[in-house]
Amino acid sequence: MSENQPPPPPPPGGTPPPPPGGHTGPPQPGLGAPAGVPRPAELLNRFLARLIDHVLLGVVFGILWGVFSAIFLTGFTHSTGEWFLFYLFLSVISVAVNLAYFALMESSRGQTVGKMLLKLRTYGPDGVSNPTMEQALRRNGYVAINLISVIPFIGTLIAGLGTLAAVIYIAITLNSDVPDHQGWHDRFAGGTRVLQVG
Description:
Elements: E1 39-40, H1 43-72, H2 80-108, H3 113-118, E2 120-123, H4 133-139, H5 154-176, H6 184-188, E3 193-196
Antiparallel strand pairs: 1-3, 2-3
Helix pairs in contact: 1-2, 2-4
């Protein structure tokens, strides 16, 4: 073969050349995935999804408030014991409902109602399957701060401030983690992800 002849063509059925960048698998969040979906969810969409969920849960908590006040706060004046029982039952049941809602929805469907509406989905650390029940409980465990509400009157204020501090910290860690947008609660759960899927 002389130096002026072109090289022979590749054999038939050969593999196509790899795409630019060398990544041949499906797009992986945070690994230079192209724009589009799925991609790590932005802070605003995650906030709006949570807001929708808490509006729905607010209806449930309003019903619980009415039921427990009818049971424990009868008449015009109430003893310290009555107030304590009211806040104890309301706080414990409210936290249980909150945790059950987020943990069951995320572990079974990967989505709460708010996430469905905003086209977001929670994935386990593998980025493919739903979080396990344990991972879903861990990533939402900060809502247990509301158990402080068992302390009559002042407990509600302390729980509210504690929850607000946790939410602010989640927002800061989520927004500063580029490009994955994982908050500290995602890392605490072993690396869960929330992706924009639509």
